[in-house]
Amino acid sequence: MFTAKEIEERLAENTARFFGLTPQEVSKTQLYQAVCMVVKDILTNRRIAFKKQVKKEEQKQVYYMSMEFLLGKSLKNHLNNMDMTDVFAKVVKKYGYEMEDLYEVEPDAGLGNGGLGRLAAAYMESLTSCGYVASGFSIRYDYGIFKQKIVDGWQIEMPDEWLKNGSVWLSPRPEDTFEVHLGGKVHQNWNNGKLTIEHTGFTTIKAVPYDMNISGYNDVAVNKIRLWSAEARNAFNMELFSQGEYVKAMEEKAMAESISKVLYPADNNFEGKSLRLKQQYFFVSASMQYIIARHLKNYPSLDNLPDKVAIHINDTHPALCIPELMRLLVDEHDYSWDDAWDMVTKITSYTNHTVMSEALEKWPVSLFKTLLPRIYQIIEEINRRYCDILWKHFINDNEKVGYNAILSYDQIKMANLCLAASHTVNGVSELHSEILKEDLFKDYYEIAPEKFTNVTNGITHRRWLKVANPRLTSLLTELIGDGFLSNSMELEKLLKYQGDKNVLNELAKIKLENKKDLADFIYKQNGVLVDPNSIFDVQVKRLHEYKRQLLNVLHIMYLYYSLKENPNMEMQPRVFIFSAKAASSYYMAKQIIRLIVMLGEVINNDKSINGKLKVVFLENYSVSLAERIMPASEVSEQISVAGKEASGTGNMKFMINGAVTIGTMDGANVEMCQAVGNDNIFIFGLLTEEVNRLYREGYYPTQYYNRSDNLKKVIAEMRNGIKGIDFSEIADYLLFKDPYLCLADFDSYKYTQQELAKTYQNKEKFQRMSLINIAKAGFFSSDRAVKEYADRIWNIRPIAPKK
Fold first, then answer.
1. pLDDT tens-digit readout, 93-114
2. What's the CA angle centered on 91, arms 87 and 94, to 5 degrees?
3. What is d(CA 247, CA 240) in angstroms, rounded to the nearest whole number?
């Protein structure tokens, strides 16, 4: 542990070296950067010591491959993990600042979008906290996903310049630069019975690594995420420039750097699809090259690679690490195909994150073959051999073989590639894993049932309590001690207070203070006054039709028009809070955002309803925004159509902060319901089997519309226009498509909302429900999840003692 004096000395060194100033002279931004440098130096020194220990023990480690890591802000999290917040606060105060001032300077790291990226970040932190050796791999996106602005209700995508103040955490490692080859021609030659590969005419992209330290809740382990930045081999063509071809002289640089510009470029055009494929191959090729090079530094050959390396594929985006690893082993290290395949299938494992067939990536052969000719050849061979297995299981069944083949119908199916090559395939909730076995991957499960398992998702419980909700953390520590920070299952000790009115009152006071903080933030950001004594009903997550923000809107519109008809109607005042980003090319999602925003403008300015209803859309959803919202939330909306949400993790963050869930029996909601009991969660809607039956037998949304005056009124108002904007497209979508059954579940949702509002009137009962949710949230920690991965999938063990 460092003293305040030591911190002061290090700060002074940094401000002098980098800014030529004393700590008293620097600006707030400069002081933030100097503080980050001190923290980074401490972590780097710990990492050096940790790496020595790892090398000494020759531990197997996991390499976690993910297109995104949604890290949020790092400074506050690092200080909390290292238990150094107070000492830094004491030093910073001497220079006229509070730590909160510095926290506000830091941007959220622009490396992720939603639950997939947040889960990857959580797992890296928990792996570190639990003392496992792990490295994450992704891309150093210059502008991340995008910065969302709402203009006249419409989402506008702006560049997210996170590197401006976020790059302080990155350490360039140019000595580990690798070349990635795109395009060109591949020639196969046989010499003395040996196949040699000649790749010519390719474009070379340099992959330059930047490392980011990942701290954990212990004094020893520090892991890293390695982020690859794309650069041109020849950044500037002097000859063309001298000829006056100024733009062409920079063309190679621009084309190369486009690969690491943004996360998930719009792919509704050929160029976008091509760029996404380049991104995926770029980062997995560089990562596989690094893993092999690192292994050969420590061992004389690659023969023991499966004993020392586990490679985990987080959804299908990194699936190309399978054929790339084959390419490196066969083409560059002279392994036979069979030996290489044996190694790859012992090393790789795969987590599926979706049951949405359209989200299972498929690449057109024409694009793939042109861009990655050698990888295409390898996939052809993997497919040929795997089809031999398929034909033995599904004799004369062309349809099943075609469906399960890696390469068929002029498409390359990345999920099938992962299923064929991975030694273990897992879903992310009990329900999701059963759907994989019984439906989505049923044929693969029939061939190799031993491959399939479940690991329910988890969250970094320390971040969502200690960092996001210090008031609640203080009360928990007072009541049950701080052991829950190391062992989340100790939260169950809180159950003995469920009948203690004083504790329930304290919980209510904390929630009210958090609501006041959020109300202030809402007014500052949106200019909307909300009453902290209202129910704070929250749905914050990626905007997608299956997540059914639209069902929430239908209910809000029903409440609003009921109030318009009867302003004196008894109703607990309620604030509905939304935040979500829509993919840049996702038109319907953008329309739904626009509907929410316009509806809010109408409701929030309607004095006739006496402030009983407010609707707020907070723009630019992020980890740091979630850290403001979750502690103040009382109702958590987890209302996806049953069978479509793989797990969810936002539901767990709400739960651990004491929000009570209203939701369907979907994803991890099922396990949350099992944990807290039916009396402490509000469940509504069709079950998965009922949803599937409705799909099979034919779903006709007009049947539900015709028998509901409430739906008729709401949909008519969409056609009439809300704040002058015609939402007939959404009305038609609901009446003639409604693929996610909003109308079918509307009545059940409405009645359950009424039951929730009635329960809220009984303050003691609602606070008891809140307490039980907090107490039962321990299972949903990412610490538990990574231990399951380590024991059952990766076969790794920790080496560092926990705090």
1. 999 999 999 999 999 998 988 8
2. 145
3. 9
Angle at the Cα of 797 (from 795 to 802), degrees rounded to 5? 150
**Which tokens hold the place of 558?**
């029903």
pLDDT of residue 247 exceeding 90, the answer is no
Query: Could you give the angle at the alpha carbon of 13 between the alpha carbons of 12 and 14, nearest 5°?
Result: 90
Q: What gap in Å lies between CA 783 and CA 302, rounded to an integer?
A: 31
Q: Is 649 a catalytic residue?
A: yes
Residue 534 near residue 614, CB atoms below 8 Å: yes
Asked whether 111 and 117 are in contact (CB, 8 A), the reply is yes
| Amino acid identity, position 280 | Q
Mind listing the pLDDT tens digit for each residue in 189-205? 888 778 889 999 999 99
Residue type for position 458: G
Tokens of 316: 């299908």
Lowest mean per-residue pLDDT among 4-13, 90-99, 356-365, 724-733: 356-365
The Cα–Cα gap between 161 and 530 comes to 31
Closest CA to 390 of 367, 413, 410, 364: 413
Sheet order of strands, 613-617 included:
613-617, 574-579, 535-540, 635-638, 660-663, 682-683
Own/partner pairs for 5-12, CB < 8 Å, 24+ apart?
7/38, 7/87, 7/88, 7/91, 8/91, 8/94, 10/38, 10/41, 11/35, 11/38, 11/91
60 is an active site residue: no
Residue type, 497: Y
661 a catalytic residue: no
Q: Rounded to whole angstroms, how far apart are CA atoms 671 and 146? A: 33
For 148-174, write each residue's pLDDT tens digit. 999 999 999 999 999 999 999 999 999
Q: Enter the DSSP assignment of 218.
A: S
Ramachandran assignment for 771, one of left (phi > 0), alpha (psi -120 to 50 degrees), beta (any other): alpha
d(CA 253, CA 237): 9
Give the residue among 392, 510, 497 at the shortest CA–CA distance from 443.
392
Q: Three-state DSSP class for 424?
A: coil
CB-CB neighbours of 632 under 10 Å: 25
Q: Among 47, 317, 541, 590, which one carries the catalytic annotation?
A: 541
Instruction: State the Cα–Cα distance between residues 55 and 51, nearest whole angstrom.
Output: 6
Residue 576: which of 562, 597, 590, 545 has the closest Cα?
597
- List the catalytic residue out of 649, 664, 688, 752: 649
How, if at all, do strands 147-151 and 154-158 pair? antiparallel
Three-state secondary structure string covering 402-414: HHHCCEECCEEEH
653 is catalytic: yes
Write down the catalytic residue from 353, 466, 590, 750: 353
Catalytic residue from among 78, 423, 515, 547: 547
Cα-Cα-Cα-Cα dihedral sign, residues 568, 569, 574, 575: negative
Helix residue ranges per DSSP H, 394-459? 398-404, 414-421, 430-435, 442-447
| The one catalytic residue among 423, 437, 653, 787 | 653
3-state SS track over 282-346? HHHHHHHHHHHHHHHHHCCCCCCHHHHEEEEEECCCCCCHHHHHHHHHHHHCCCCHHHHHHHHHH
- C-alpha 161/C-alpha 36 separation (Å) is 18
Dihedral angle over CA of 86, 88, 94, 100, nearest 10: -80
Task: Compute the distance between CA of residue 488 and CA of residue 482 in angstroms, rounded to an integer.
Answer: 10
Give the residue-averaged pLDDT of 778-797: 98
Residues in a beta bridge with 561: none
Please answer whether residues 427 and 457 qualify as being in contact, where contact means their C-beta atoms are separated by less than 8 angstroms. Answer: no
**Token pair recorded at residue 431:** 């329900």
511 is known as an active-site residue: no
| Residue located via tokens 């707020």 | 616
Q: Which of 310, 360, 343, 323 is nearest to 136 (CA)?
A: 310
Concerning whether 149 is annotated as a catalytic residue, the answer is no
Q: Catalytic residue among 542, 548, 628, 784, which?
A: 542
